[in-house]
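Researcher: Sequence recovery benchmark, item below. Answer with residues only.
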């Protein structure tokens, strides 16, 4: 597996650890997946998954560690993670080893929420760039997820749960804005 470790910069100047895993033969002819990771851990914990994608799908992979994760600066926030993913998109757009007609977002869990937000935002832009979005084991919103994990929260007085949750990630409201193919993957 050929790989390049790099530092990307988000729009607010935060420096982000990122990896570019690219195919040895004609990477510019391959699909490229921008991988947006789950809440816990670091991008190094995803190497088994990257190996499967790399070997079996013959794709390039760009993975960015969100602010506050791995070797990236800053602290996580909803707008910050969106900027982090956008930095990965910008890298792909300017990298000559990447075919701009074959770039996809792939987000797992929290990364799925980030992918939905970025795809919805980019769908409104004249400079649209992505070819598809894959979300794996993600959620409709933090509020809905809290109801599943902590059922007693659903019984709180109206509006209290929303005030308690710092992050919202209301993906269900953004999905209709996405203008490219969207694949949902979920299972036990």
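Model:
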């Amino acid at each position: 597996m050929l790989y390049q470790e790099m530092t990307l910069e988000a729009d607010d100047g935060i420096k982000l650890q990122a990896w570019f895993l690219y195919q040895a033969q004609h990477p510019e002819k391959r699909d490229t997946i921008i991988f947006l990771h789950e809440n816990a851990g670091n991008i190094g914990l995803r190497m088994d998954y990257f190996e499967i994608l790399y070997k079996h799908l013959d794709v390039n992979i760009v993975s960015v560690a969100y602010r506050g994760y791995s070797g990236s600066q800053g602290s996580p926030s909803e707008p910050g993670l969106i900027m982090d993913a956008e930095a990965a998109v910008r890298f792909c757009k300017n990298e000559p080893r990447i075919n701009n007609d074959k770039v996809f977002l792939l987000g797992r869990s929290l990364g799925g929420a980030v992918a939905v937000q970025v795809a919805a935002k980019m769908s409104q832009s004249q400079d649209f760039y992505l070819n598809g979005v894959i979300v794996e084991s993600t959620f409709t919103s933090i509020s809905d997820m809290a109801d599943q994990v902590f059922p007693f929260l659903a019984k709180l007085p109206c509006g209290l749960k929303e005030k308690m949750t710092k992050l919202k990630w209301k993906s269900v409201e953004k999905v209709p804005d996405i203008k490219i193919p969207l694949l949902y993957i979920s299972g036990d």
